[in-house]
Amino acid sequence: MGFFDRISQGLARSRERFTEQMNVLLDRGPDLDDDFWDGLEETLILADIGGPAAFDIVEGLRDTATRKALPDAYAVLDLLNERMASSFAEGGEEIFGGEPAVVLFVGINGAGKTTTVGKLAKEATDAGRTVLLGSADTFRAAAIEQLEEWARRANVEICTRERGSDPASVCYDTLERAESKGADLVLIDTAGRLHTSADLMRELEKVVNVVRKRSSLPVYTVLVIDATTGQNGMQQAKEFDRALKLDGVIVTKLDGTAKGGIALAVSHELDLPILKIGVGEGLDDLKDFDAHEFARAFVGEFDERS
Ligand SMILES: Nc1nc2c(ncn2[C@@H]2O[C@H](COP(=O)(O)OP(=O)(O)OP(=O)(O)O)[C@@H](O)[C@H]2O)c(=O)[nH]1
Q1: Which domains are delineated in the chain?
Q2: Which residues form the Signal recognition particle SRP54 helical bundle domain (predicted)?
């Protein structure tokens, strides 16, 4: 299956819901009146892309419709996915772009951090990079084992300590090992925590600060969000960003939800690039993010004759 087809399949549920809601709007006719523009904004908000991104998209399309004297709603919808794509924050290429780096993965419990680190380790090793994993999730014994299993599969070295150890010490060990080994991509998994837990967020701040201070390589902090949590993902992103100053976001489980619009809401509102998307549990279901392909797969097509 082609790259776009896989993303399109992963976003099928989000697209179905969006198409259904758009068709309700189109049923009232294709005129470009105030009701259409209000309805379009509402439909976008219902698709989880958030108020600010919805407003931005509708204002942009409305302006184009006037300037180009677009004839009807279908002509506007032809431009929707490009407009949506341009509402995503840009950047982030440097994080997995081949330059040596240390990347910390943070997020709530079960978001998909460990799985994502494992998939990235495999991808980077296959691309010829020297990868080192660090398991700073010392809270859950199974998380250490899970990452060890991924390390075996990807044939990469991993730094761990026993359950209950100080996560900052594991990071310290990992960075020392990375230096002596000459690793050029260091991926550190952290324990899942709720963004509402002040103590655990403070602990994470400490871990990130230790890594930023100690590392001789650039350090990036990446939030992993489970798309099925929908609007709660926005709260998570705001709190993690406030505490850690994030560099980018990975959105997982897009295959299991109609709430894929959350990727755009978070990227637009917090000006954070989406780095990768998860569209399944398989080893190669972590995909590079392309705003144009994402928007095309999300919006689908609206045919006047259908
Ligand atoms: N369908 C689907 N499942 C996924 C995806 N990414 C991860 N998962 C599944 O989500 C579950 C949780 O993933 P983990 O990687 O253990 O999550 P975690 O964030 O490390 O969890 P904690 O260590 O508890 O914080 C696993 O069963 C993964 O297989 C995805 O893109 N699609």
Answers
A1: 101-246 (3.40.50.300)
A2: 7-88
CA of 229 to the centre of ligand 1 (A): 13
Dump pLDDT digits (tens) for 22-40: 999 999 889 999 999 999 9
State how far the Cα of 295 lies from the Cα of 82, in Å rounded to an integer.
7
Residue 69 alpha carbon to ligand 1 centre in Å? 47
* CA gyration radius, the chain: 21
Is residue 66 a contact partner of residue 76, using CB atoms and an 8 Å limit? no
Enter the pTM of the model: 0.95
Read off the pLDDT of each residue in 61-84 and give the average, rounded to a whole number: 95
Mutate to test the pocket of ligand 1, among 146, 147, 228, 252 (most ligand atoms within 8 A of CB): 252
Distances (CA, A) of 240 to 8, 104, 210: 29, 12, 17
**Rounded Cα–Cα distance for residues 20 and 5 (Å):** 21
Find the DSSP H helices in 127-229: 141-154, 167-181, 198-214
* CA 217 to centroid of ligand 1, rounded, Å: 28
Q: What ipTM describes this predicted complex?
A: 0.97
Read off the pLDDT of residues 104-127 as tens digits, 9 standing for 90 and up: 999 999 999 999 999 999 999 999
Listed residue (286, 294, 296) closest to 116, CA to CA: 286
Residues with CB under 6 A from ligand 1: 107, 109-115, 137, 140, 143, 192, 252-253, 255-256, 278-281, 285
Query: Is position 147 annotated in a ligand binding site?
Result: no
